[in-house]
Amino acid sequence: MAFSSNITTFTLSGLNLTKESKYIYFSLALLAYFMVLFFNLSLAITVLHEKTLHEPMYIFLCNLCINGIYGTSGFYPKFLLDIISDSRDIPYSGCLLQVFVIYSSVMCDFTTLTAMAYDRTVAICRPLEYHSIMTTQAVVTLLIFCWLHPLFCSVLMIALTGVLPLCGSHIDKLYCDNWSIVRLSCFPTTLNNAIGFIVILSFMAHAIFILYSYKKLITACRNSREDKLKFMQTCVPHLLTITIFSISVLFDTMYSRYGSKDTPQSLRDFMSLELLIIPPLFNPIIYGLKLTELRRRILRPCKRLTVAQNSEPGRKIRRRIIFS
C-alpha cells in the first residue's frame, strides 16, 4: 500500500440508489430530520417556557433533546446531500468535524441518561432529602459534566486521529467515524486504541452505575404502591430510552468493528444509521407520551385551539338568534 500523508478528501460508501428511488429516500430522510427537529424542539421549548417544569428531571430531559438536535445536525445535512447528488466526497476537516459532533453527541446521551438515573434514584430512594441534594448548583454541575466529559473525550480522540498518516481515503460507511479513519493509518495505532479503550471503560462505568441505580430503584419500589406508581411514570420512559440507546450503540459497534463485506448492503446500512435515527426520534415521543405533566403542557395549545374552533359556531348561532 502506498504511503500518503496528503489526503484532503474522504469518499463515503453511500447508498446504492436508482434515479427514481433517490427522491423517495431523500423525502423520507428529510421527513425524519424535520420530525426529529420538531419533536425535540417542542419538548425543549415546553420545558424552558413552563416554570412548573423547571425540575431536575425535566431539565435533564431538555438537555437530552437539545443534544439530539445537535447530534443529528452533524449527520442529516451531509446525508441528504449525498442522497440527492452523485458525489460521496467529504473534506478531511469536514470528516473530522462530523466525527466530533456525532461522537460527542452519543457520549452526551450516555452521560445525560446517567444523570437522569441518579436523579430518579435520589427522588425515589431518598425523597425527604431530594431537594437538599438536587439543588440548582448540583443540577448545573451535572449538566456541565454531561457536556464536558464527552467534549473532552471527543477532542482527545480527534487530536490523536488528526496526526495519523493515512494510506487510503475510502470510508466504508454512510458517515465519518473515528474507527474507520484510524483503520486507514499506515502506522500502528496502539495509542489510539489504548485511549479508545479507556474511553470505553469510562462509559462502561456509566452503564454499571445505571444498572446499580435501577437495582436500588426496583428494591425500593417493591413494598410501596406510591413508589411503584412513581417508578412507572418517570422511570419506565428512562428505561425504554436507555434500552433503545444501548441497542443502537451495540448495532453501530458491531458494524464498525466486526462488519463484513459479505453482510447484505441493506443490513449494513441499517446498522450504520440506526444509532443516528432511532434514539433522537423516539426519545421525545416516549417522554412526551408517558410523563403526564409534560404531555398536558405540550397539548395545551392544541386544546385551546380546539376549544376556540368549537366555540366559534356557537357564537355565530347566538348572534343570529339575537338579531333575528
Mind explaining what this structure looks like?
The chain is an all-alpha fold and 324 residues long. The protein has 11 helices and 3 strands. Strands 2-1-3 form a 3-stranded mixed β-sheet. The mean pLDDT is 81. The longest helix is centred in the middle third of the chain and has 34 residues, at 92-125. The chain starts with 8 loop residues before the first strand and ends with a helix.
Short description:
Helix content is 78%, strand content 3%. The protein contains eleven helices and three strands, in the order βαααβαααβααααα. It has helices spanning 19-49, 56-73, 76-84, 92-125, 130-133, 136-162, 178-182, 190-221, 225-258, 265-290, 292-323; strands at residues 9-12, 89-91, 170-171.
Shape category: globular
Looking across the biggest beta sheet, what order are the strands in? 2-1-3
Poorly predicted spans: none
Helix content: over 70%
Question: What is the tally of helical segments?
Answer: 11
Instruction: Provide the structure class.
Output: mainly alpha
Largest sheet: 3 strands, mixed
Radius of gyration: 24 Å
Q: Write down the secondary-structure element order.
A: EHHHEHHHEHHHHH
Average pLDDT confidence is 81
Number of strands: 3
Q: What is the first-to-last residue Cα distance? A: 93 Å
Please indicate the percent range of residues in DSSP E strands (runs of 2 or more): under 5%
